[in-house]
Structures are given as C-alpha cells and as structure tokens.
Amino acid sequence: MEDKMEESSDRREMRRSKKGGLITMPFIIGNESLEKVTGYAVVPNMILYLIKDYHMSVAKGTNILFYWQAATNFTPILAAFVADSYLGRFLIIGFASICSLLGMILLWLTAMVPESKPPTCDLLTQRCRSPTAAQMSLLISSFVLISIGAGGVRPCSLAFGADQLDQRDNPKNDRVLESFFGWYYASAAISVLIALTGIVYIQDHLGYRVGFGVSAILMLLSVLLFFIASPLYLKLNPSKSLLTGFLQVMVVAYKNRNLTFPLPDSTGSYHHRRDSNIVAPTHKLRFLNKACIIKNPGQDIASDGSASNPWSLCAVEQVEELKALIKVLPLWSTGIIMSINLSQNSFPVLQASSMDRHLTTKFQIPAGSYGMFNIISLALWVILYDRAILPMASKLKGKPVRFSVKLRMGIGLFLTCLAMAVSAIVENARRRKAIREGFLNNPHAVLNMSALWLVPQFCLNGLAEAFTAIGQTEFFYSELPKSMSSIAAALFGLGLAVANLLASVVVSIIDDITSRGGKESWVSSNINKGRIDSYYWVLTILSVINLLYYFVCAWAYGPCGDQPTKLTRARNGLRKEELANLGTKEMKGKA
C-alpha cells in the first residue's frame, strides 16, 4: 500500500515536472501581447475622442486620462496580492482577461450607439451639450473594466511566465531570467507598436466604431489563447496572505516594543518555520525583529511548531519579507518622476496634430502614432543589449559581463532628464513658428513644420524606459523573496499609478496658478496660446532633482544581486553558523 502511495506521488511529481517550460511562452506572452495591443490602442486618440465627441476641455480630458491610467497602474498591486495570497496567478489572469474583454465591448458601444454620448455641437450657436450622468457612467465603466483587466494580466503574466522557467538552483538562472525579462519587454513593445500604428491608423481612417471593434475582437482572441493552453501551465499554489502577514509583523512588533533583544549567540529565541535553517533575523530595521521573539515557548508555540497566535508571534521569514519590501521602496520611488514623464500622452498628440505629419504626399502618420518611436527605440535597445552588446563585452573581457541593475536605472533616469529638455526646446520652436505664421488664435491650423521633430524626445523616453523599467523590474524580482514575485512585478506599475495621480496634480496646479488674473493657462485648450514648453521645463527640473535623489538612495541601499552572499543574508536572515560567528565576534569585542 505504501509502495503504491509513493508510486502515485512520484507520478504526480513527474506530471508536475513536465508542466511549464518554453512551450507555455507563446500562450502567456500572446495573451499579454494582445491585451497590450487592445489596451494601448485606445489611449493615444482618447483625448481627441473626449474633446470632439464628449465636448471636454483639454485640462479636464487630460485629468480623466491621468486618473484612468492611474487606476490601470494601481490595480496591478491589488491583483498581485490576491494572486500571491489567495487565488493564484492563473485564475487572476483569466478573470482579468474577461474583464478587459467586457470593457472593450462597452467602449465599442459608446461609439456604436448614438445615445451613449452627447449630440454634435450646434454649428450656428457653437454651443455644445455636456455628457449626461448616464453617458459618463457608461464611458467610465468601460475604463474601469479595462483597468481591472490590465491590472490583473500585466503583473501576473510576467510572474506567471517566470514561474514556468524559474529554477533558482540552476547556476544560469539569473541569465535565463534576465533574457526572459528582456524578451518579454521586447514582445510587449512590439505589441504596443502594433497598437500605436495599425489600430490607431484604423481609428483615424475608418472611425472609432471600427477601431474599437477591432480592439474588442483582439481581446476575445487573447482570452481564448490563454485558456486553451490551461493543461500545459505550471500553476503554483498561493501562499498565505502576504498583506495579512505584513500587518501581523507590524502589530506584533508594536506589542513587543518593550521587550529586550536576546543575546546574539542565543538559539531558540526567535520563531522560525519548521525545516528552516534560518534561526534569526538580520539586524537591519531591527525594531521589527521583536515580532518574532519567543516570550513563552510553552504558550507561544503550537505542537506542530507553528505560532499559537500569529497576532502575538511571527516567523523570522515574515519579518524578513517585510524588511525586503521596505528596503526597496526608496529606490522604487525614484522611478515615479520618470513615469510622470512617460505618461505625457495628451500633449504630444495635440502637438503632432498641429504639425505636418506627411511622410509622402499621400501618407501621413496619425497624431496618436508618434509614441511608436518610444517603443521602437526600447525594442531595438533590448535586442542590441541582449544579442550584441553583452556577448561582445563578454568576449572582450573573457568572462560573462552584465551591467548592474542600479547602473541601468541611473542611466535611464539621466536620459529622461534629456528627453524632457528636448521636449521643451521643440515645443518652444513649434509655438514660435505658429505665432510667426499667424496661427496664435487657431490651434487647429497645421504648421509648416515637420512632426518628425517630436521623434528625438520619444526615442530618448524609450531608451530611458528600456534602462529603468526593465532594470527596476529585474531588481524587484531578484531582491524580493519568490513568494512575492507578483508584487515584485507590480511595483513598477504601482509607481506608474502614483505618477499618473501626481501628473494630474501637477497639471491642475499649473493650470490654476498660470490662469489667475485672466491670463492664458500654460495648459490651455489653445496650445498656441498656452506654454506647454514651460510645463516641460518644470518636469525637466523635477527630473534633475530626482536623479540626485536616486544617487543617494542607490548609495544607501548598498550591494544587491551583484553580491550573492550579502543578498542572501539581507533577504533571508541569519543562518545557524552565521549566528554563531556573530556571537563569537561580539564576545571577543566585549573582552
């Protein structure tokens, strides 16, 4: 009987070991890519859709889009917690994909049903009716569902894909993951490129009815593609609630704030999980260590070795997980300003629509498609970095070469400073030309100035994102425990969410301050009268300050994944032999 049970267990393990791997990548990346195509395709022209079809001002429409993007980037952190703690990544991705499909259908209905938006403006009186509460509710509902879909698919797909490949006992695991992250972002970039070219072109030339309809069809394909490969996936079970665990650590640490710390060489003073050789927490953020101090072994520890009351005693591993999250937050915050710069979608579209977008006499690039140059530069850098620069550097050095994540993040933050400075210079030149040509009061006029002048700022932003976004994602994933992998993937998205909210605040403040006394606002609906160039200079100054802040945070963080021994100790805590050595050193010091 025991032999049969062991045989059955072995068979289950063999079936489990056959799941995952490279065969699942087309389905996971395909689902993510199609979701990105549909999600990103509706963003560029949305400001024009809100202005023309919903009769909104530039400032109001821009703020609504910032809030929408904030929701899209904030939901990943909630989805990550639910995936890691309760439902698992597979269920979250499936549910989110269905939500995104429903959101696309509702958005398509706003274009198909005339009663779903305000009537056209009266040509004689030039009066335009505002949308009703029901019309806005339908529009906002589509935005909410799309945000839930994107929030569930994007962070969990990245972690779900890594689950299929991640083998931390493999000495080449770091290189495999680095390559996976790079190619994952490259495929995502290509998807966004398709969205910003093909789908936006359809919206411009065939209208929003066809454009939004195509997005809905592609999202349906995304849902089918993900579920059809369900038997192939390696589906890891969720661990217990990380959020609850974090709260328990903070509550218990506060309760035990008056406890004295055990001696460094004492054993059995800290509670740790069964079969774990980590017996003591690290000394960083030492006040949290009191959460895992055993006060009364008979009462605190259950017969199975777990804590009798998790709100009175936590495990060392719980404490170290919270420490790891707290430790990365300062470096995470350095990406917020760059994300504010990347979220400037509305103003470049308005700039491009006022410039000559013709490549030939018969073909012109849609105003919403210039963001493709951001994606092109990102994808090209990823390919060159992975297939040319690293192999060449390794060959010259005679050993494997990698640029550290902190170096890459720093380079990206420097490039975003340059991008905003270039944006300000180009906009200043565009505005002066509009005034010279007599278009000060005509924001819809097309200037005799090529829109290709906008390309350098998009390319610089693309390179900045390639360095910082990929670097931050890899940094979070390698520095945080594997149990927090979805949270690691969602942290960059959370930074985007905070950035979108702050960007809305910045626009509102600038609009309020610069329009006082009857003056024309910097972010006026008439971009020829406004001063978008000055707005860009404000972002440039903030970017420079943020770069200096990053240097301080990177120095304070210390070594990361480049030094495995220190990384292991910082992430996992002190092992038995390390604790004994520490106690011996302190005893010698006292002697």
TrEMBL record:
One of the Pfam families matching this protein, by short name: PTR2
Subcellular location: Membrane
InterPro entries linked: MFS_trans_sf, POT_fam
Top-level taxon: Eukaryota
Keyword Transmembrane helix recorded: yes
Claim: rRNA-binding is one of the keywords in the record: no
Gene3D superfamilies, sorted: MFS general substrate transporter like domains (1.20.1250.20)
Keywords for this protein: Membrane, Transmembrane, Transmembrane helix
Membrane spanning stretches: 21-43, 63-83, 90-113, 133-160, 181-202, 208-234, 367-385, 405-426, 446-467, 487-510, 535-557
SUPFAM superfamilies noted in UniProt: MFS general substrate transporter (SSF103473)
Record membrane topology: Multi-pass membrane protein
Protein family: Belongs to the major facilitator superfamily. Proton-dependent oligopeptide transporter (POT/PTR) (TC 2.A.17) family.
Stated name of the protein: Protein NRT1/ PTR FAMILY 1.2-like
Organism: Gossypium arboreum (Tree cotton)
